């Protein structure tokens, strides 16, 4: 690590929590929360200092929880790590929720708050007012139960393996076969994987129904009509459910037709009579799959080089955190990818399931964007401001997929391979919109139709699959494969209504990419300036700072789809 890059990891000294205080359980934290609750606030200076102290102890607490979560997801088959995380969920987090509410009310009820600068503390006031409105002590055990159920989902998905051609393979490893030119091999791999997932369909349905019951009770305790209303309020959304429905229509009108055009072109180039679900990831010209790297060390090094070529500031930041990653897929590892923040150190941790495919490059570019957000906003003293609205948080990540994905020399010396990878990514960007609309519309139906039967749920899923279909024929897939395809989307289980943000953010990322092609320095400067604001402003203002529109109308989406279509040469 260079001296220059190390500045991004400079430690923050404690001033309220004892420097040698280790956090291992609630008893280590309780004295600090009790002291905060008893503190007398006599001036605005007292109130500001009190907020900093509260932020400091929260950072220490959340870092401990994040560490346990990281260890659990990296080793879902380790009983000790699983139990350590569940102790956090069952014992630590309920106490944190209880004291957070007490301190929220202490802050909000203080007359001194009225004297604070609204431009600096206005967003915090909004956050805390919403937290107070949405807190009910009866919901603490429900939150615990929901986290336990989420852990069960991760454990179930992480344990899935199949025997394929004499070798045990994880689900991410099986995805590599879907990129092979041999169609029979792809179909066998798809069928084997789908049948393995379907063996768990009853368990997953039962798990999801248990989650729905808990969420319904949660909303009822707050006097809300449904859990969707809670999600929209808690996420401080600057748009409504009706706006989401209009966005679905805009996607159906603009992005889905382009995705269908891309599928038709693929069908013609492949020379097959129908496009099956095992035909969507392979090269349409029959070339072997791209092999960007053999070892994950090469993946991390290559992505570092990409960021260096985009902007030296990005490369230095990414290089400084390469020690804080777990990238390799393996048995017992939770699915997916994420970036977690160690709140006290204010350092990101990146988790992926790399198997040697080009999608692994995109994933690390994506999570690298989240890491830049963490590093760029780490100087903000209040923990509440170090995380932005998800609509903008995903702009940070998706922008790097688009810009970094245009600088693939570290992985491919052949210009044809770089062009091929770029085209496939842009096609994926188009396809993302329809998938997001399908998942989001599905969740709206789920949470506004309480007490529904699982068969009705699958029927609605199939209806939406038809509405946003891009021309894939599922008739040859194992029975139930399409019906239960949603089981693979962890957000539906663990993070309800966290999905439309991806499509909104993609609109933002495409706008930054458009500006980057005109003026690269200006685009990156605006991007970094917006990231440095963290969550101190609502999403529309963050978009504005980045030089883009917070607009998900058919007009803007149509413009951006036209730009992508032109770049693809369709």
Mean pLDDT: 96
Would you list the SSEs in sequence order as H and E?
Answer: HHHHHHEEHHHHHHHEEEHHHHHHHHH
Terminal-residue CA separation: 45 Å
Beta strand count: 5
The helix/strand class is mainly alpha
Low-confidence stretches: none
Individual helix count: 22
Shape: globular
Report Rg: 24 Å
Largest sheet: 3 strands, mixed
Please bin the fraction of helical residues: 55-70%
Strand neighbour order, sheet with most strands:
3-5-4
Strand proportion = under 5%
Cofactor: Zn(2+)
GO molecular function: metal ion binding; metalloendopeptidase activity
Domain Peptidase M3A/M3B catalytic: 177-559
InterPro entries: Pept_M3A_M3B (IPR045090), Pept_M3A_M3B_dom (IPR001567), Pept_M3B_oligopep-rel (IPR011976)
Outline the structure in words.
With 570 residues, this protein is mainly α. The protein is built from 22 helices and 5 strands. It has helices at 3-6, 26-38, 44-74, 79-109, 118-133, 140-158, 171-174, 183-198, 201-221, 227-234, 241-270, 296-310, 312-320, 358-376, 390-404, 415-447, 454-467, 490-494, 500-518, 520-532, 539-545, 554-568; strands at residues 161-164, 167-170, 325-328, 338-342, 347-354. Strands 3-5-4 form a 3-stranded mixed β-sheet, sandwiched between helices. Helix 9 packs across helix 10 and helix 15 crosses helix 19 (500-518). The longest helix is centred in the last third of the chain and has 33 residues, at 415-447. 40% of the residues are buried.
